[in-house]
Amino acid sequence: MRVSCFTFLKNAHLLGYPFVESIRSALPLCDEYVVNIGECEDDTVEMVEAIGSPKIRIIRSQWNENMRTKGFVYGQQKSIALYNCSGDWAFYLEADEVIHEDEIPAIRTAMEKHLHDERIEALVFDFIHFYGNHGTYAFSPAWYRRETRIIRNTIRAYAPDGLFFVVLDAGSNKKGRYPRAALAHARIFHYGWLRSQEQMNEKSNRVAKYWGQKNAEIDYAQIDSGILREFTGSHPKVMSGWIPDGPVPVFKADAAYQLSGREKRHRIMKKLEDFFGADFTKKHYRLVR
Predict the structure, then answer these.
(1) pTM for this structure?
(2) What strands lie across the sheet with 176-177, from one edge to the other?
(3) Per residue, what are the HEC states of the chain?
(4) How far apart are CA 245 and CA 33, in angstroms?
(5) Of 77, 155, 76, nearest in space to 117 by CA
């Protein structure tokens, strides 16, 4: 079994991504790590090179700055990296996503188990979305709890945006579908909302255009306090230099914050989830039972 890992980056250091930690976390799993890097104004390229792993293969690409629809430029760059993978499985990690060293054996076992089962086209991870500090995570129907991160590299798959994959069946060139998937029985630690508020706003200012949107000022305290939960587990060891040592209290939201209509709907959905034991988050895959 050959495993490719892949990601895409642009100004990742400038925008506060823990991309070095992300890459390092998955290196023990992969035979190659394809890193697609766009034109940068910072030292992202040099920092990836400094990791010093012979598994890493850097490719350079030009972003289409005129693409302003639903983040499709992210899908383009993700697909470019995917199409340069040579493994049986292709494992995608975004620049702010990290895997825990304790779960590497489970991930490898899942790939080995399903390698020859062509019904399984992808593997799905549970997500922990940290928010505000490393002792807090967000949990609500608004924050996806599971997502595909490993895709079989012998099928026709592409990325319409940075988040998910679409598969084209052999007999169709027109209509895609979400991949058939199994659970990886492992977690993705998502640290995007742990960068400084200044870095988050700089990121928002730079990337909003790719969605055809105007930049909205981000204030971490402006959030529904009811979705914030305490995280009591351990963080991946590679994050030890990126997050402070020791426990922290649950991030404190603004007590005067007024819920939006969307957040009110999500509160109702969460109550229904609790009552029915359901999960109403968006799913870009279909689990094979």
Answers:
(1) 0.96
(2) 156-158, 166-168, 176-177
(3) CCEEEEEEECCCCCCCCCHHHHHHHHHHHCCEEEEEECCCCCCHHHHHHHCCCCCEEEEECCCCCCCCCCCHHHHHHHHHHHCCCCCCEEEECCCCEECCHHHHHHHHHHHHHHCCCCCCCEEEEEEEEEECEEEEEECCCCCCCEEEEEEECCCEEECCCCCCCEEECCCCCCCEECCEEEEEEEEEEEEEECCCHHHHHHHHHHHHHHHCCCCCCCCCCCCCHHHEEECCCCCCHHHCCCCCCCCCCCCCCCCCCCCCHHHHHHHHHHHHHHHHCCCCCCCCCEECC
(4) 29
(5) 155
- Do the Cβ atoms of 189 and 101 come closer than 8 Å? no
Q: Which residue has the tokens 């592409």?
A: 158
| Positive or negative: CA dihedral 11, 152, 22, 196 | positive
- Other C-beta atoms closer than 10 Å to the C-beta of 147 total 24
Domains of the chain, with CATH numbers?
1-289 (3.90.550)
The predicted-structure confidence for 256-268, as pLDDT tens digits, reads as follows 999 999 999 999 9
Six-digit token string for 253: 């939201």
What span, in angstroms and rounded, lies between the C-alpha atoms of 58 and 37? 7
- Max Cα-Cα span within the chain: 55
pLDDT digits (tens, 9 = 90+) for 220-255: 999 999 999 999 999 999 999 999 888 899 999 999
